[in-house]
Amino acid sequence: MADERGVSRVIKHRLGYRHLDPIPDDAELEDFYQSAYIDLVRQGRRFPELTRLLAEDREAEAEQVWLRTTLHADLIDALDRQIGRRSKVLWDVGCGIGEFVASARDAGWAATGLEPSEEATAIARRKGREVVCATLEGYVAAGASARSPAAIVLMNVLEHVTDPLGLLTIVHDALGAGGAVAVRVPNDFNPLQHVAQTQLGLEPWWIAAPDHINYFDHESLRRVLDAAGFDVVDQWGDFPMELFLLMGDDYVSDPSVGPKCHARRRRFELGLDADQRRAFDRSLVPLGWGRNTIAVALAR
Question: Does residue 12 belong to any structural domain of this protein?
Answer without folding.
Answer: no
